[in-house]
Design a protein that fits this description.
Aminopeptidase, 8-stranded mixed β-sheet, 16 strands, about 25% strand, elongated
């Protein structure tokens, strides 16, 4: 027992020395990123030279070529394209939603509106009908006998008491996602939804919806919040008639690619860590926060690890996923190919919550990993990313988690302004702050370094 005492006394000193080594390297990563980081310039290139890049569009093909060239320039061990099929939804001409009459009297008023992704168009003549305004699905059920032949308007607002705004988005999002089919079940001819936002402007927010094939497919659009408030008040006092003209339609699925770069592991090259963001965006904006930020975060993590001379134990893959917004086919293909090759995926990190100031990470990991994660939190405190929460992973890591039970995580930036721009025309380069963007990459690179060295 006496012979063990010196070793026991030495263990805290060893842990302290290791923590100090980690702290020094993470500071090196931070200094290099904040001085020389290229993420902001890459984001400018992506948003201004490519712009909106909906999967299947010519702009998305341009984004793939841009991503491959940019990844090649960083100096990864290999860069390649992974083919996948993606849906090709086209918005068509300008969406138009307008009040035509109030209490039967002409009252032409245009509403700021965008058709929802994956919806069918109304046809060139449009759909004209009386509006049935409801606050939620419960009220729709109460009024189901009055739905036939109407345009249903869901005016379900974000819950302002949720400080974590993604909770409000998840709550309200079901009206965008399933509202059209639930209205069509009772004979509605169109659907309008209050935008998934708590912004103070009137920009409409698009986003994907999904039809239930058991019911007719009807046109569906989102309107800006100011217009939603006015329409709600008008419907409470009067009979309101609206005309919707949308042109959305699907073309046959088309070929696209995940853009993948790799640094080969020195010790365990067959064990893979994935870092990624999605390259596609909606067509109505530049996709700066969603998810241009995640794309350039991914690229910056690659760049800074190379710049500081870090040689990982495991192979690290940097993936620009295709088609997260309206199908997630890029992530599905990535996981499918990994399973076919019997690969070992030990961790996956995603950035798809914007380029705002980092606050921490959400984790989907085994319970036994939490002791190790909590011991790392102090290393993130100088860089703002020390808030660790349960329930992590994003849309593009979900397929890996399902296929391999891979531990996953997602960068969590401050979310208070994210839904001001999410899926709206205001998601542009000018609404991204350079320092905030770079700090996100610092925290991601630090986490990748720690997982690579110590595992979970």
């Amino acid at each position: 027992m006496k012979k063990m005492l010196p070793l026991i006394a030495f263990l805290p000193m060893l842990a302290m020395a290791q923590t100090n080594t980690d702290s020094i390297l993470i500071k090196h990563i931070s200094d290099e990123t904040m001085r020389n980081g290229k993420a902001y310039e890459w984001l400018r290139q992506l948003t201004k030279s490519v712009g909106g890049r909906l999967a299947g569009s010519p702009q998305f093909a341009k984004a793939i070529a841009w991503g491959k060239k940019a990844m090649d320039s960083i100096g990864a061990d290999k860069v390649y394209l992974q083919e996948c099929k993606v849906p090709h939804w086209v918005r068509g001409q300008n969406d138009k939603v307008a009040i035509t009459a109030i209490n039967g009297k002409p009252s032409p008023t245009t509403l700021d509106a965008l058709a929802l992704g994956n919806t069918i168009g109304s046809g060139s003549k449009g759909v004209t009908a009386e509006v049935l305004a409801v606050k939620d699905f419960a009220q729709l059920e109460q009024l189901k006998d009055k739905v036939k032949g109407k345009i249903v308007f869901y005016n379900y607002p974000f819950n302002p008491t949720n400080i974590a705004t993604f909770l409000s988005y998840a709550d309200a999002g079901k009206y965008r996602w399933t509202g059209a089919s639930r209205a069509a079940k009772y004979g509605a001819v169109g659907m309008i939804v209050r935008s998934m936002s708590e912004s103070t402007d009137n920009n409409p927010h698009t986003g994907a919806q999904e039809y239930n094939d058991s019911f007719p497919k009807i046109p569906a659009a989102a309107i800006g919040l100011q217009d939603a408030d006015r329409l709600w008040q008008q419907c409470a006092a009067s009979t309101v008639t609206i005309k919707m003209v949308t042109h959305g339609h699907f073309l046959p699925d088309t070929t696209a690619y995940n853009v993948i770069a790799e640094i080969t592991g020195m010790d365990l090259p067959n064990e893979i860590i994935t870092v990624g963001g999605h390259l596609d965006s909606w067509d109505v904006n530049e996709g700066a926060h969603d998810d241009g930020a995640g794309v350039v975060h991914t690229m910056e993590v690659l760049r800074v690890l190379k710049a500081v001379g870090y040689h990982p134990k495991h192979t690290i893959r940097f993936v620009l996923f295709a088609n997260e917004e309206n199908g997630s086919k890029g992530a599905e293909k990535y996981a499918e190919a990994a399973k076919e090759k019997n690969e070992q995926h030990i961790f996956a990190l995603e950035s798809d919550a914007g380029g705002f100031t980092p606050r921490g990470f959400s984790f989907g990991v085994p319970a036994q990993a939490w002791g190790k994660l909590n011991a790392w939190k102090t290393l993130f405190e100088p860089y703002g990313g020390s808030s660790f929460t349960v329930g992590g992973g994003g849309e593009d890591t979900e397929a890996l988690k399902a296929a391999f039970k891979t531990p996953v995580a997602e960068l969590i930036p401050d979310s208070q302004r994210y839904f001001d721009v999410h899926h709206a025309r205001s998601d542009v380069f000018e609404n991204v702050n350079r320092r905030e963007l770079l700090l996100g990459a610092v925290n991601m690179a630090a986490l990748i370094y720690l997982v690579d060295n110590y595992g979970l």
